[in-house]
Amino acid sequence: MLTKIINNLLSNAFKFTEPGGKITLTADITSNELVLSVADTGIGMAKEQQEKVFDIFYQGDNAQTKYGSGLGLYLVKSLVKIHHGDISVESTPGIGTTFRCTLPCREDFFIDSEFAPTEVGSEKEVIREPDTQPEEKMESGDKGKEETILIVEDNEDIVEFLTDSLGVKYNIHAVSNGAQALEKLNEIPETSLVITDVMMPIMDGITLCREIKTNFDTSHIPVIILSAKSEMEDMM
């Protein structure tokens, strides 16, 4: 969990800091809490941008945001909230930005159901990170999860976000294009839902949807199409 928070905050700082700028990561821990700060000397944000920066899919007006997914900071805030923490941002245009994250360290901040199960005799951990990647974990099969979702997406941030959001209740498999998705559906005919991007290499989401719906063996599977396109001519 901490790795994801730090990686996303640092990734955001690198994105908006010019070569020769400075990025500082600090961590202070007490008996009650951990305080993480990521400060940069980048382009900074106006007040109205700061109010939206944690919104899902939010991207500012700067050219650098074209290369992001708009999920990184939303994921950070979601992880912090799950762990009863708090995150804030301070920024000045042309000066830089500081993100400050506070996380509780004591067990009495959490209820029993929020601790991940561990081996008998070992200490309990708070929402422990999985030891394997999502695809490797799901390939082994989870007997407690009856429904299977196939994610078709070539953006790693979005795959990670969907896996974190849905993996608690469902078996998740992820591939990066439509051709791989058709192969995976042949391997896992019990798939309950397909979530696909539109723009992908080899086979796009529209073609994939058409292939699924015109095949008798897969035509019953619901398909959700994700797209950043919002113009009327792009809508289906």
TrEMBL record:
GO MF term set: phosphorelay sensor kinase activity
Response regulatory domain sequence ranges: 148-236
EC top class named in words: transferase
Domain Histidine kinase: 1-107
Keyword Transferase: yes
PROSITE patterns noted in UniProt: HIS_KIN, RESPONSE_REGULATORY
Keywords from the UniProt entry: Kinase, Phosphoprotein, Transferase
InterPro entries per UniProt: CheY-like_superfamily (IPR011006), HATPase_C_sf (IPR036890), HATPase_dom (IPR003594), His_kinase_dom (IPR005467), Sig_transdc_His_kin-like_C (IPR004358), Sig_transdc_resp-reg_receiver (IPR001789)
One Pfam family of this chain: Response_reg
EC number: 2.7.13.3
Entry's transmembrane regions: none
Reactions accelerated catalytically: ATP + protein L-histidine = ADP + protein N-phospho-L-histidine
Protein's recorded name: histidine kinase
